[in-house]
Amino acid sequence: MRLSSWHAYLAAACLIFGLALIQAFPQRTPAVTNVKNETLVRTVKELETDIQSLEGELSSLRAEIDLLQKQDSGGRDLAKSLKIDLQTQQVNAGLMEMTGAGIVISLDDNSAGAQAAKKDNPQDYRPNDYIIHDKNLLYLVNELRAAGAKAVAVNDERIVLSSDIRCVGTVIMINSTRKAPPFKISALGNPSRLKKAVENGREYKYLKENNYPIKVNTADKLSVPAYGGTLPTGSMTPET
Question: What is the pTM of this model?
Answer without folding.
Answer: 0.61
